[in-house]
Design brief:
Blueprint: E1 4-9, E2 13-18, E3 23-28, E4 31-36, H1 37-48, E5 56-58, E6 64-69, E7 76-79, H2 81-105
Antiparallel strand pairs: 1-2, 2-3, 3-4, 5-6, 6-7
Length: about 110
């Protein structure tokens, strides 16, 4: 059975790691993303450097968003500017706490 540790959380996002499986989970708005520890680090590096304003698109209601593709062509992640900012604050917190747990428990 998996024992999870919450690394970062607010009302919209929870990032937790499974200590047995060595998997990180990001729970966000009806979407669950699973990453190995290496995949999570690669995802962070690949997306953190993206500038929101360089990838703007408009939803049908006119709201500006960024759409991130996934390995599945029919599934994309959509972020408003506020959600984008909040998302990376939580990822930064999760990475920090992941390192803290590695130091404490290794």
């Amino acid at each position: 059975m998996c024992k999870t540790t919450v690394l970062a959380q607010n009302e919209n996002i929870t990032i937790a790691q499974c200590n047995n499986c060595k998997v990180l989970n990001i729970w966000r708005s009806g979407v669950l993303m699973n990453f190995s520890f290496n995949q999570f680090d690669a995802f962070y590096v690949a997306t953190k450097k993206l500038n929101f304003d360089d990838y703007l698109e408009n939803r049908p209601d006119g709201r500006q968003v960024v759409i991130l593709s996934t390995p599945f062509p029919d599934i994309s992640l959509v972020f408003t500017r506020e959600e984008w900012h909040e998302f990376f604050i939580k990822i930064d917190e999760a990475l920090y706490m992941k390192r803290v747990y590695e130091i404490v428990y290794c």
